[in-house]
# Entry
Amino acid sequence: MEGEPAHAQAQSGACAVMWGALRAARRMAAAAAGSGAGAGSGSGSGSKRPRCEPAPRIGTHDGTFHCDEALACYLLRLLPRYRQDAEVVRTRDPQRLAQCDVVVDVGGEYDPERHRYDHHQRSFTQSMQCLRPDKPWTTKLSSAGLVYCHFGSQILAGLLELPEDSPVVTMLYDKLYENFVEEIDAIDNGISQRDGEPRYALTTNLSARVGHLNPRWNDPDQDTEAGFKRAMELVGGEFMERLDYYHRAWLPARALVEEAIQRRFEVDTSGEVLEFPQGGCPWKEHIFSLEKELALPKTLQLVLYPDRSGQWRVQSVPVEPHAFESRLPLPEPWRGIRDEALSQLTGIPGCVFVHASGFIGGNRTREGALEMARRTLAQRQGGDAQSS
# Structure
């Protein structure tokens, strides 16, 4: 588009191409989960295997199942070689596993040339960074991470109908590992998210929900086959939903944030305030990555955007993408005050609210929200001057 930066044009074009690609992805995903732990009759693209050829076999352990092997099996069934009729063989029998084309999470071997992807052996210490030095993640891999490491780019390229070396595939590969697969790797390997005693329990993550699909310890029927099929459907559905979100919402937002950064001095001469044309844009992670990529001389402090009602919001950039702490919260005297009382306190017409923590505030107009942002910047600068 005229007036848009060249890199933003390129990214917008790539996003436009991708928007229709997940239709094929959903068909493939249905085939991947549909047959569960038996021979499948999926509806994915491609022709059926000739009758004379045996169906490929994906081996994993039987008994209690976990999120990592459920996702590993699901991802493998997105590959062309397994998509149509691969059978998931759940066993610990070495002879049956030896007959499988690929084995995950059992067998005590990591040998990608023979398609053996277990991580339980004492000698296994591999992380994504170990196997792909261009990647930063050092979390020990589970069977899910191993399959994703070796086949993730191929899977995403097939789902999105793009080349494996496409920048879009590379960006989504990294995003899905960091925000989906790595958590499964860490939980399966017993790696705590942080040191010290946790303040509260996390029992609703994907790994926990898969665990609850196993039979209860005192159930008379301890058959896990039906539960494993449900687990594959659960993790596969969430993987595809996450891919759809990152592909159709998160990735287009990057171009919007980059454009806002290029125009930031048109909003305020400080260059520390961004303005978005609409609310709901997932901007936080993009701000942090683009600050580094563009080597911005000053960090961004505040963003402006309209809400669905047509009013405006001023929000502080957090200190980290997922942190609750703000880089520059709105002034303390404003916090928890609303409407006319807030307008009188600030001297800014049209004020609606400021959150008790100061991370966000509202005004009925763009001009009012921008003035709230400018006053916030000015109070910080005044405080800095007084302290020096």
